[in-house]
Amino acid sequence: MRLGVVIVQTRPWRQLAADFRLMEEIGYDAAYVYDHLTHPTAAGGWLADGFATLAAAATVTERIELGPLVASAMLHSPVSLARRAATVQDVSGGRLILGVGAGSPREPLADTGTPLTTREMSERFADLVVGLDAVWAGATQWRGTARGFEGLETVALPEGTDRPFLLLAAHGPRALALTARYADGWNTYGGWEASRLEPEAYWTLVREQCERLDDACEKTGREPGTLRRSLLLGFGTVRPTASVAAYQDAIGRAGELGFDELVVYGPFGLPAADVASDVRVHAEVLAAR
Predict the structure, then answer these.
(1) Across the chain, which distance is largest between two alpha carbons, in Å?
(2) Mean pLDDT rounded to a whole number for the chain
(3) What residues make up the domain containing 150?
(4) CATH of the domain at 153
(5) What's residue 40's pLDDT?
(6) Which residues does residue 65 pair with via DSSP β-bridges, in sequence order?
(7) Is 34 in contact with 7 (CB distance < 8 Å)?
(8) pLDDT of residue 231
(9) Are 61 and 29 in contact, with CB atoms under 8 Å apart?
(10) Cβ distance 141 to 148 under 8 Å?
């Protein structure tokens, strides 16, 4: 079981740099950041740019994989996201996990003041994923439903650099179909409704999502086992970092459902969320692997 940690970039870089180094030192496989302009868990506080933070983190770490969890389709076009991702992939020596998701309706409001419907958000997400694949394939022009590009004269990646691992966050049928067709991995935290569920109901919901992903893979002719499966825990009633026992129990339950990676929130907490934890819990669980 891979273990990942979310390091929310609400602290000045001099502190974040130490956070990334510490998480690498105690043995985490991956460190993730937010990609938001605004978020209720950071209300009233600072939130640094995700990709700039990842590039900086690459210079103070050596082994740990790095990525956004997840890059918001509300904030990026295929070409601009490919450029940011390729830059971090280059700086990190190939350690980027490019997490991508539909994003929050808060993002377009904060960015342009224009609300988007659920359908419009779904179309943007689909266009971002398919368009990103076109960029990686070397296309100079492409047109989707709501987005496109043309006249692209630069290459997608620096010489000798592979495209990053693509991890899609998906819950609904269309997003799961995109994951089955284009992604290297799948991530879920259960969805917004999951935050209100009691633990047993939460695990039942996640099990059902796994089954829907299996169905999506079968419909596209893909072997389900070829997708890495990543579960983010802590946003809701299931709090794995509350104790060593809770963390180990979460690892076991995630493994039973077929997940290859469990991601938790780091030991530094969030300004407006009760997910703070003792760094000794993280260190003890990682040491026992």
Answers:
(1) 55
(2) 95
(3) 2-287
(4) 3.20.20.30
(5) 85
(6) 30
(7) no
(8) 98
(9) no
(10) yes
